[in-house]
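Sorry, I am new here, but would you mind making up a protein's amino acid sequence and the tokens describing how it folds?
***
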Amino acid sequence: MTDQMRHSAVTIAESAFKTPVSHGKVYARIADLIRIEFGKCFEAKEREDEEKSNGGGGGGERKKRGEGSSGWCCVVGDHFGSCVTHRMKTYIHFSVVPGVNVLLWKS
């Protein structure tokens, strides 16, 4: 990940941990918040990069992605193992709160 992406991931995660969650599975809700916000931040940049690599010609229809369908995945928890397939330079594993880890990657 670029430095900007890493910084954004940590900042988004810090704000997600501060969001009050009163029901349901707390870690799952925090993971959803991180995944959706991170996807919003970098979806436009990814489209620009795709257009540059395709020559910028347009030519085809593009489906609008719905909320949470940006390809980013997130797991938050205090005890989990992982083996994920990810795109190059799109993986980060960090901790915001001691003992609670965040794993964010693009599949």
Notes: The two ends are 14 Å apart (CA to CA). Residues 26-53 form the longest helix (28 residues). Residues 47 and 53 are 10 Å apart (CA to CA).
